[in-house]
């Protein structure tokens, strides 16, 4: 019996790719490099700063300049993290339906608190989340299960009664390790090179409201 639904943020509840891409392209412009098209940015957005810097500059996180680029990217993103970000169509009707069924809901994201503490309150939720766990809330991010377990504890439910919706392999890994069911948001930031059918999820949805079929 599902008592709570937990969600990833980027690519699952909120469409943040445009603001992330804008930050990357401002950094690229500073370095005299051409911008990256949105169509290339969107599938990588769930991988955050690391994935976007690798995309824009063609370098690995072990490159000596990587940390400087990451710091500057985050500074650019911090200046405009909510300019273009919106909730995906269907998210608010889903949250209202979950609440009507007596279910709790929350967010477990790898996004740092410096962003989630301001972005989440700025979004137009029909029902506010019962808990928000960021990538640095408990000291380790997904795929470690600790953020998932912390969210369940804060909501007052046991992990096995939770369902998690995300759009990345680490989301499924974290949910599984925490003893939760895992559903993949196929509408999210999934690239052509990803293989979501090998991630071991319990199901897939193409629209947020389809999640109601799984609770």
Walk me through the structure.
This protein is of the alpha/beta class and 215 residues long. The chain folds into 2 domains: 4-15 and 85-214, Rossmann fold; 17-79. The chain has 8 helices and 8 strands, in the order E-E-H-H-H-H-E-H-E-H-E-H-E-H-E-E. Strand 4 (104-108), helix 6 and strand 5 (132-133) form a beta-alpha-beta unit. Helix 1 crosses helix 3. The protein starts with a strand and ends in a 10-residue tail after the last strand. The model has no long low-confidence stretch (mean pLDDT 96).
Number of domains: 2
User: In the CATH hierarchy, what is the architecture of the largest domain at level 2?
Assistant: 3-Layer(aba) Sandwich
Radius of gyration: 17 Å
Query: What would you call the structural class?
Result: alpha/beta
In quaternary terms, these chains amount to: single chain
Mean pLDDT comes to 96
Tell me the name of the CATH class of the largest domain: Alpha Beta
Question: What name does CATH use for the topology of the largest domain?
Answer: Rossmann fold
């Amino acid at each position: 019996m599902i008592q709570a639904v937990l969600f990833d943020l980027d690519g699952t509840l909120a469409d943040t790719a445009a603001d992330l891409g804008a930050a990357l392209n401002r950094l690229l412009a500073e370095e005299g490099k051409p911008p990256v098209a949105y169509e290339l940015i969107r599938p990588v957005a769930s991988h955050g700063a690391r994935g976007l810097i690798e995309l824009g500059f063609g370098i690995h996180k072990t490159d000596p300049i990587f940390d400087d680029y990451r710091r500057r990217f985050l500074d650019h993103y911090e200046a405009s993290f909510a300019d273009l970000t919106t909730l995906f169509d269907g998210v608010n009707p889903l949250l209202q339906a979950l609440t009507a069924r007596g279910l709790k809901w929350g967010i477990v994201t790898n996004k740092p608190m410096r962003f989630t503490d301001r972005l989440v309150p700025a979004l137009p939720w029909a029902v506010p989340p019962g808990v928000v766990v960021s990538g640095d809330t408990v000291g380790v991010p997904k795929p470690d299960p600790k953020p998932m377990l912390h969210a369940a504890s804060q909501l007052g439910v046991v992990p096995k009664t939770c369902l998690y919706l995300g759009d990345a392999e680490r989301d499924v890994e974290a949910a599984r390790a925490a003893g939760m069911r895992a559903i993949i948001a196929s509408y999210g930031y999934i690239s052509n090179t990803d293989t979501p059918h090998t991630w071991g999820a319990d199901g897939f949805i193409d629209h947020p409201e389809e999640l109601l079929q799984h609770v």
